[in-house]
Amino acid sequence: MAHYEEFLIDQGADVAIQLELVEPTGAVKDLTGKTVTGSIKRTYNTPDSDAISFTSVVTDYANGYVTLSLTNAQTSLMTGKTYLYDVEVSFQDSDLNTIIERVLEGVIQINPSVIR
After folding, report:
1. Which of 24, 26, 108, 31 is nearest to 66 (CA)?
2. Spatial CB neighbours of 42, under 8 Å, sequence gap ≥ 6
3. φ and ψ at residue 74, rounded to 5 degrees
4. Considering the chain, what is the average pLDDT of its residues?
5. What are 24-50's pLDDT values in tens digits?
6. What SS3 string covers 82-111?
7. Contact at 8 Å (CB) between 109 and 15?
8. How far apart are CA 5 and CA 54, in angstroms?
9. The pTM is what?
10. Whole domain around residue 42: which residue ranges?
11. Are strands 82-92 and 55-60 parallel, antiparallel or unpaired?
């Protein structure tokens, strides 16, 4: 089951969220050979074509560190509303099946900007 976390993001700002992923046992999640992706939507039913994708950069594969980021151009387009997000780790097992694990999910509140 994914960990739940809420974030408040300023509209029009660059955002970077650093995650340290761990296994349910508390051990560090090794991200070697794995891909981390994240997506933001207004509702669960929002078409994928309208989703906003985090840019994800794994900064330390062996120790489970990854940074999710959004540009100011992306957050400028987000109104002062509530959004849903999730973050997934995917990899291929020894039988070359793609395994997808949701590791983080939650709500993002957008703090509107007067300048926008």
Report:
1. 31
2. 50, 81, 83, 84
3. -70, -45
4. 94
5. 899 999 999 999 999 999 999 989 888
6. EEEEEEEEEEECCCCCEEEEEEEEEEEEEE
7. no
8. 15
9. 0.88
10. 3-111
11. unpaired
Give me the pLDDT at residue 113, please: 87
Q: What is the Cα–Cα distance from 24 to 72, expressed in whole angstroms?
A: 34
Closest residue by Cα to residue 116 from 10, 42, 14 = 10
Listed residue (3, 6, 1) closest to 107, CA to CA: 6
Number of structural domains (the chain) is 1
Q: What is the DSSP string of 3-51?
A: EEEEEEEETT--EEEEEE-B-TTS-B---TT-EEEEEEESSTTS-GGG-
Residue 103 CB-density burial (10 A; 0-12 exposed, 13-18 middle, 19+ buried): buried
CATH number at residue 50: 2.60.40.3350
Q: What is the pLDDT of residues 47-77, one digit of tens each?
A: 988 899 999 999 999 999 999 999 999 999 9
- Within a domain: 116: no
